[in-house]
From TrEMBL:
GO annotation terms (biological process): iron coordination entity transport
Protein's recorded name: Iron-siderophore ABC transporter substrate-binding protein
Keyword Mitochondrion among record annotations: no
Pfam families attached to this UniProt entry: Peripla_BP_2
Signal peptide: 1-29
Main location as per UniProt: other
Residue ranges of every copy of the Fe/B12 periplasmic-binding domain listed in the record: 71-331
Assigned keywords, A-Z: Signal, Transport
Subcellular location: Cell envelope
Cited InterPro entries: ABC_transptr_periplasmic_BD, Bact_iron-sidero_bind
Family designation: Belongs to the bacterial solute-binding protein 8 family.
Chain spans, region Disordered: 30-55
């Protein structure tokens, strides 16, 4: 468990947490989903020379960090991946959604000793306290009701949401970790790759339009530009069909009778947990067969855990890997 002083701090924080729980009563998590589109907090005007203490302004206010965080807990899988991308020491995290258990394999040794503190809907606060974190990261859309309790455990920074704000979220986490330069370099490298691969795809297919469809256990969705996958397509310079260009809306919900709304030169589709039955119905529908026939076979089943739920630099680069492989262009690495 560490030195006696560390043990004492853990016990003290755990007592504080339990007192907070007693006062607050039953805690409820803000469940959120990747359809949330609220604006993310702007990066703060914290210390530009890397000195600590620094004050980080975030979606729930201001948090003072006395020193560079060494023991980090992240309470959303996209925030987990952001911490890993910035070489933070992640002692606790929420790995994924629903039955997609475990941290992604592509995170490798970086999460080999990371404690799972989920589920997403109700993080284990007692376990988090025993990990003795010096920074907790989450999102208002996920855990707004838990902010005070988390802050009683350790300094806590909240982004507003996930999904469309994934780049801004990396920037805010980088500020807390004094890794602004690393974040800027990695984002610039990703964007250069996206441009190179997108240019090659446009040249090969003659500037195609692209649709992304997701099958869920609720309404089937066409994902628009203000989404994780939509942002990647925009970064690649790939066009969307006329009905899919709204910069504010997150998705279009369609029934089987509205399949034609997904019409594009190239179609990508994914299936989220629970959406398999709906996917089979759509794919067996004559309207789907007609749609994909018009596309001359340019309809591709891609991984939901990468294209939809990763919401990370790692995931974005894997989407680019998929695009390079599918269209046989250079991967620009």
């Amino acid at each position: 468990m560490g030195t006696p002083n560390r043990v004492g701090r853990r016990r003290g924080r755990l007592v504080t947490l339990l007192l907070s729980l007693a006062v607050a009563g039953t805690l409820t998590a803000c469940g959120g989903s990747d359809t949330d589109t609220s604006q993310d907090a702007a990066p703060s005007g914290g210390s530009s020379d890397g000195a600590y203490p620094r004050t980080v302004t975030h979606d729930q206010g201001e948090t003072v960090l006395e020193a560079k965080p060494q023991r980090i807990v992240a309470l959303d899988n996209s925030l987990v991946e952001a911490v890993v991308a910035l070489d933070g020491n992640l002692v606790g995290g929420i790995s994924s959604y629903r039955d997609l258990g475990g941290f992604p394999e592509y995170l490798g040794d970086a999460v080999a000793e990371t404690e799972e503190v989920g589920p997403l809907e109700s993080p284990n606060l007692e376990l988090i306290a025993t990990l003795d974190p010096d920074l907790i990261i989450s999102a208002t859309v996920r855990h707004e009701d838990l902010y005070d309790q988390l802050s009683a455990i350790a300094p806590t920074v909240f982004v507003a949401t996930t999904g469309p704000t994934w780049k801004d979220n990396i920037g805010l986490i980088a500020e807390a970790l004094d890794e602004e330069d690393a974040a800027a370099e990695q984002l610039a490298a990703y964007e250069a790759r996206a441009t190179a691969i997108g240019t090659a795809v446009n040249e090969q297919l003659g500037d195609p339009t692209v649709s992304v469809v997701r099958f869920l256990d609720g309404p089937t969705r066409i994902y628009l530009p203000a989404t994780f996958s939509g942002i990647i397509l925009t970064d690649m310079g790939l066009a969307r069909p006329e009905n899919q260009r709204d910069p504010e809306e997150f998705n279009i919900e369609i029934s089987e009778e509205q399949i034609e709304q997904a019409d594009a030169d190239v179609l990508f589709y994914t299936s989220y947990s629970g959406g398999e039955e709906r996917r089979e119905r759509f794919l067996a529908n004559p309207l789907w067969e007609r749609l994909t026939a018009v596309q001359n076979g340019h309809a591709y089943d891609v991984r939901d855990e990468i294209w939809m739920t990763s919401v990370s630099l790692q995931g974005a680069n894997q989407v680019l890997d998929d695009m390079a492989e599918i269209f046989g262009v250079d991967d620009a690495r």
